[in-house]
Amino acid sequence: MLKTRIIPCLDVADGRVVKGVNFVDLVDAGDPVAAAQAYDAAGADELCFLDIHATHENRGTMFDLVRRTAEQCFIPLTVGGGVRSVADVRALLLAGADKVSFNSAAVADPDVLSRAADQFGSQCIVCAIDAKTVSPGKWEIFTHGGRKPTGIDAVEFAHTAATKGAGEILVTSMDRDGTRAGFNLPLTRAISDAVPIPVIASGGVGTLDHLVDGVTEGGASAVLAASIFHFGDFTIAQAKAHMAAAGIPMRLT
Amino acid sequence: MSLTALIDYESGNLHSAEKAFQKMAADLGEGTVVVTSDADVVARADRVVLPGDGAFPACAAALRGTGGLYEALVEAVEVKGRPFLGICVGMQLMATWGREYSDTPGLDWVGGQVVPIAPSDPKLKVPHMGWNDLVLGAAHPVFDGIASGDHTYFVHSYHFEVADPALRLAHVDYGGDVTAVIGTGTMLGMQFHPEKSQDVGLRMIRNFLTWTP
């Protein structure tokens, strides 16, 4: 039976983890490679690096991080942030990323998903969708770190992304991100119901029950979280045990 | 000093596979692992690995279209009987036919066809993406230290329907049986990514590197 995945996400800027990672044994908590290794050892099912500045100047730094992580971690790594073209995808895959996530560029031109999927396969193309609630049951996509409204309906766009060739959708609720109030479950469920491909729930996790809700109520195939793991509130093992106790199939290591 | 060649036919991410094989070769203290698109290197390799991501027809065309690689692969595996491991689409290429987009002939090393995953439960998503637990169906040296229930990482939308059930060495459940490992003689294929399957995957890579069929 396929297991539900837990994906710790590391926000990276200029080669350093931004939110900080509180692991007991970590000498340098700001080093993404060290954090990735710690999560690998802790039983994370995948890892995600999000390049939050993603300026042209620091791309080299990101490639180096990805390369060094892939040398040490033998679980899948998704990299996102500033990905604009098929050439960007190729460069990240060559560095050692297993999946690459499009965000603003896919909103501006959904066909970039097709071009990337045609060349590298849908399995490595993720479409990240950042959405805000605009009215009950309606969610709009915002780009550029949530600053720029697009007028595009999030659920319709998710369907478009899947049709164009994305292999997975990463849904982040801008209303919930950083609040620790839990995933936006109606949004997650609406997108999960609208697409045939796996959906990763993101944004707002504060408790282990939130992770459970993302799967049972949101219909997500995977749950992504940052703060609750980085700040040591819970371990990956605690999260997995809690989800398993709630009846969700988990890979317990 | 034995040489393991990972064939680069410009299909997918070879960095992870290269690092995983090199790590295991280093642990064993024996052997060299190279990523190569040079037919001569494949021809003199002691072991051959065919990775691959993407669509069956594109991968098959890339393999056949690249400077003698296809001929070198067939020579090394079919004629010389060098131990072979296909990974993901590299495993699927061992089939008689790929039915992705169009009907494409494969290497026909293991009879069968590669068809879309069609889970009996419509709620199950495709691609089949994530960790699934293996059900071992036959004993094989590559499973040394591996047991049914161990998890490996899958990401694929098509799967291998094996004509002879005896050649399906392991499967997983995803709304029906999905072939996970195939094997015959000196040939092995894994639908999952051993290089992304942590200790379980690394163990199987290590087993492959010490396998003497």
From TrEMBL, chain A:
Compartmental location: Cytoplasm
Family matches, as SUPFAM superfamilies: Ribulose-phoshate binding barrel
Annotated catalysed reactions: 5-[(5-phospho-1-deoxy-D-ribulos-1-ylimino)methylamino]-1-(5-phospho-beta-D-ribosyl)imidazole-4-carboxamide + L-glutamine = D-erythro-1-(imidazol-4-yl)glycerol 3-phosphate + 5-amino-1-(5-phospho-beta-D-ribosyl)imidazole-4-carboxamide + L-glutamate + H(+)
Record's signal peptide: none
Active site positions: D11, D130
EC number(s) from the headed UniProt entry: 4.3.2.10
InterPro entries from the UniProt entry: Aldolase_TIM, His_biosynth, HisF, IGPS_HisA/HisF, RibuloseP-bd_barrel
Top-level taxon in the UniProt lineage: Bacteria
Protein's UniProt keywords contain Ubl conjugation: no
GO molecular function, one term: lyase activity
This protein's record includes keyword Transmembrane: no
Keyword terms of this UniProt record: Amino-acid biosynthesis, Cytoplasm, Histidine biosynthesis, Lyase
Pathway: Amino-acid biosynthesis; L-histidine biosynthesis; L-histidine from 5-phospho-alpha-D-ribose 1-diphosphate: step 5/9
Function per UniProt: IGPS catalyzes the conversion of PRFAR and glutamine to IGP, AICAR and glutamate. The HisF subunit catalyzes the cyclization activity that produces IGP and AICAR from PRFAR using the ammonia provided by the HisH subunit.
Assembly mode: Heterodimer of HisH and HisF.
Family that this chain belongs to: Belongs to the HisA/HisF family.
Designated name of the protein: Imidazole glycerol phosphate synthase subunit HisF
Organism phylogeny: Bacteria, Pseudomonadati, Pseudomonadota, Alphaproteobacteria, Rhodobacterales
Gene symbol of the encoding locus: hisF
UniProtKB/TrEMBL annotation, chain B:
Active-site annotation: C88 (nucleophile), H193, E195
Subcellular location as annotated: Cytoplasm
Pathway membership: Amino-acid biosynthesis; L-histidine biosynthesis; L-histidine from 5-phospho-alpha-D-ribose 1-diphosphate: step 5/9
Catalysed reactions listed for this entry: 5-[(5-phospho-1-deoxy-D-ribulos-1-ylimino)methylamino]-1-(5-phospho-beta-D-ribosyl)imidazole-4-carboxamide + L-glutamine = D-erythro-1-(imidazol-4-yl)glycerol 3-phosphate + 5-amino-1-(5-phospho-beta-D-ribosyl)imidazole-4-carboxamide + L-glutamate + H(+); L-glutamine + H2O = L-glutamate + NH4(+)
Keywords: Amino-acid biosynthesis, Cytoplasm, Glutamine amidotransferase, Histidine biosynthesis, Hydrolase, Lyase
EC code: 4.3.2.10, 3.5.1.2
Gene Ontology molecular functions: lyase activity
Role according to the record: IGPS catalyzes the conversion of PRFAR and glutamine to IGP, AICAR and glutamate. The HisH subunit catalyzes the hydrolysis of glutamine to glutamate and ammonia as part of the synthesis of IGP and AICAR. The resulting ammonia molecule is channeled to the active site of HisF.
Subunit architecture: Heterodimer of HisH and HisF.
Protein's recorded name: Imidazole glycerol phosphate synthase subunit HisH
Organism, scientific name: Tateyamaria armeniaca
Lineage: Bacteria, Pseudomonadati, Pseudomonadota, Alphaproteobacteria, Rhodobacterales
Gene: hisH
